[in-house]
Write a structure and sequence with these properties.
about 700 residues, alpha+beta, Penicillin binding protein transpeptidase fold, Beta-lactamase, 4 domains, 5-stranded mixed sheet, 5-stranded antiparallel sheet, 21 strands, elongated
Length: about 700
């Protein structure tokens, strides 16, 4: 029995040792398998090139300047250790105490409040792993961290960590951060400045000393206290450092600021569509081919600087613009703001109320495709209440009935809402979804762009591009392909493509939207060449006549674009004093300066041209008589003055015994004969002009009894 009591613990202990050894070997094996040491080479910056192979910029190569840990003042480095991983010099990649403490505090808080990742784990996550939040990713993180600790010294790990950190405003690595925020090399940083930088990696935007200096200073002082508690600073040094101001002295702006907003959208697309993180782009040695038109990008950027396009109550109104290639769907230019800063608020993807610019894509395009209406169908243009919703025309004018062409050209609100009521909200939303716009709204205000969350200029441009692309929607993209440092294609554009409108209806919409530019709400400014588009405005109710959002979306044969302008936050002191004529002028001037002019829309083969509107006049010169002819015996002859528009149809009506009957219709002539007529009847006749486009009768003649045996 005693032997058994001794053997069993020995077996258990031995098994544990064996399993631990196997586990350790497994971790080492898997770690070497997962780790790609090329990713630890920070000077492998990525570059962006256009479709012709011309390099536009290196991906923040100016903002990362790897340095040796020897160049970093010891107390500056210790500021990061104190706040991120106080047991850094004690653990071997993972810190059981920190993990246990984090789990305990998470349980007490009922949610995740504290992280347990070491500096080594953060390094593993940021360099080797994607942003997938899975158990497998966390396991890989631990395995990589343990192997990094085995292969590299603590100083080397800390050096790599400091060189890969993101410090906001497009700045990576501690040397670039020192240069950007303090205009000095890292070797010259004070401990106070080091703590200021150490405050940022947790949330670069939240703790930015530029955007939120108070929050940064508060966290900086917390870090200095931690350094004192952990023995890196004396009490005197701590008090002195906390007494200093932040001392921010920013370096000059980027030499190519006009590409900043476009580059940020590239980064966003790489991460969201291809799971390539921002950090990986900066250190992976990628070559990213993009569909940018550098000339158009720079022209748009410079135009945004001109205050004459932006009528504001006070301060400086904001704006964004995006232009898409009609063939590929690639984004040719994107400006996220008038004073855009790298990694800033990008208004190309910001949601705003679209106003009437929504009408073609939410109402009229779908109405044509559903075959419920035609371009010259008559729409109701009256003041009307729909369960308490009472839209009004912006000019207070109502015509009773108006063609779809005129309703679009004059931006009639009541006609758009009435059409949507006939079309159906769900039908409208199904078309919007096909064009990349998913909204939760359920009311008729959709017709006028009255949305809960709004849409972005990029979404609007993408939807209008559907008309320019013969009815096929292509999701706009910023990345054509990505190749690695060995020239292998690792990702390429997987462009979503879906037919939304027939080629005929897309062409009809193009012709209708051309009328908006030629004779409707988008006449402002001048442009040489074919242009189709729609304006949009939303009002600010706090001030009479104030505009909140002003839009223009349009396209030429080669390029589709959308421009929004307004304030990020509209109030009684910040609103536009002008409407959509300003984005219209800006749009036209950008294209003109970029020499995207003198293009002509070409009708697709086999497609019918949209006719000009038929013009009806009142009928005049009507005569009716019976004549005797050898072949027709008594023949009824009707004649009238022919109208100028040869497409007018003439309807022949007969009235007998008080009953009216449409007996025939003719086109292209000013006479009508009916052989073998009964001259003894009491029949009377009249002729009425008829518009085959609108299905509307004009002013006809009165009923006349034919003269007997007239000549």
């Amino acid at each position: 029995m005693k032997k058994k009591k001794i053997i069993i613990p020995l077996v258990i202990a031995g098994s544990t040792l064996v399993l631990s050894f196997i586990g350790y070997l497994t971790i080492l094996f898997l770690g070497h398998y997962v780790i790609d040491e090329k990713k630890l080479v920070f000077h492998a910056s990525s570059k962006i090139i256009d479709q012709n192979g011309k390099e536009l910029t290196s991906m923040y190569s100016e903002n990362r300047d790897p340095v040796s840990l020897k160049e970093v003042p010891d107390k500056v480095a210790k500021a990061f250790v104190a706040v991120e991983d106080k047991r850094f010099y004690e653990h071997h990649g993972i810190d059981a105490q920190s993990i246990s403490r984090a789990i305990y505090r998470d349980i007490l808080a009922g949610g995740k409040v504290e992280g347990g990742s070491t500096i080594t784990q953060q390094l593993a996550k940021n360099i080797f792993l994607t942003n997938d939040k899975t158990f497998l990713r966390k396991t890989k993180e631990v395995i990589i961290a343990i192997n990094l600790e085995r292969d590299y010294s603590k100083d080397k790990l800390l050096e790599m960590y400091l060189n890969q950190l993101y410090f906001g405003h497009g700045v990576y690595g501690i040397q670039a951060a020192a240069n950007y925020y303090f205009s000095k090399d890292v070797k010259d940083l004070t401990v106070s400045e080091g703590a200021t930088l150490a405050a940022m990696p947790k949330a670069p935007s939240t703790y930015s000393p530029v955007l939120h200096p108070d929050k940064n200073k508060q966290r900086r002082d917390t870090i200095l206290n931690l350094m004192n508690e952990q023995g890196y600073l004396s009490s005197t040094e701590t008090v002195e450092a906390k007494g200093r101001t932040l001392g921010i002295h920013l370096k000059k702006k980027s030499e190519t600021p006009w590409v900043d907003s476009y580059v940020d959208l590239i980064i966003k697309e790489a991460e969201s569509q291809y799971s390539i993180s921002h950090e990986q782009l900066l250190q992976g040695g990628y070559t990213i081919t993009v569909p940018i038109d550098m000339n158009l990008q720079k022209v748009a950027y410079e135009a945004m600087k001109n205050n004459r396009y932006f009528p504001g109550k006070s301060g400086s109104p904001e704006s964004s613009a995006v232009f898409i290639d009609n063939v590929s769907g690639g984004v040719k230019a994107a400006i996220g703001g008038r004073e855009y800063q790298a990694r800033g608020y990008n208004r190309v993807t910001a949601l705003r109320q679209p106003g009437s610019v929504f009408k073609p894509i939410a109402v009229y395009g779908p109405a044509l495709q559903e075959k419920k209406f035609r371009p010259y169908s008559l729409l109701e243009d009256k003041e009307k209440s729909y369960d308490g919703y009472s839209p009004k025309n912006y000019d207070g004018q109502y015509e009773g009935q108006v063609t779809m062409v005129d309703a679009l050209m004059k931006s009639k609100n009541t006609a758009a809402v009435w059409t949507l009521s006939q079309l159906g909200i769900d039908t409208s939303k199904s078309y919007l979804e096909k064009m990349g716009i998913d909204i939760s709204d359920k009311g008729l205000a959709i017709a006028l762009g009255g949305l809960e969350k709004g849409v972005s200029p990029l979404q609007i441009a993408g939807a209008f591009h559907t008309f320019a692309n013969e009815g096929v929607y292509k999701k706009p993209f910023f990345i054509q392909k990505i190749t690695n440092d060995e020239g292998e294609t690792v990702e390429k554009n997987r462009n979503k493509q879906e037919r939304v409108f027939s080629v005929q209806n897309a062409w009809n919409m193009t012709r209708m939207l051309q009328q908006v530019v030629k004779g409707g709400t988008a006449q402002s400014g001048s442009y040489a060449g074919d242009l189709a588009g729609k304006t949009g405005t939303t009002t600010y109710s706090g001030v009479k006549g104030a505009t909140k959002d002003a839009w223009f979306a349009g396209y030429t044969p080669s390029t589709t674009g959308a421009i929004w302008m307004g304030y990020d936050k509209t109030d009684n002191s910040h609103y536009l004093t002008g409407g959509s004529q300003y984005p219209v002028q800006l749009f036209k001037d950008i294209l003109t300066t970029a020499q995207i002019t003198n293009e002509t829309f070409e009708k697709p083969e086999g497609i019918k041209e949209l006719q000009s509107p038929i013009h009806l006049e009142g009928l005049s010169g009507f005569e009716a008589r019976y004549v005797f002819k050898i072949k027709g015996l008594f023949t009824l002859e009707l004649s009238w003055d022919e109208q100028e528009d040869k497409r007018v149809e003439y309807r022949i009506y007969e009235k007998r015994n008080g009953s009216e009957t449409l007996i025939d219709s003719v086109t292209g002539t000013n006479s009508y004969t009916m052989p073998f007529a009964n001259v003894f009847s009491d029949a009377e006749y009249k002729v009425v002009p008829y518009n085959t486009q609108t299905k509307e009768e004009g002013e006809g003649s009165s009923y006349v009894k034919p003269e007997t045996f007239g000549r």
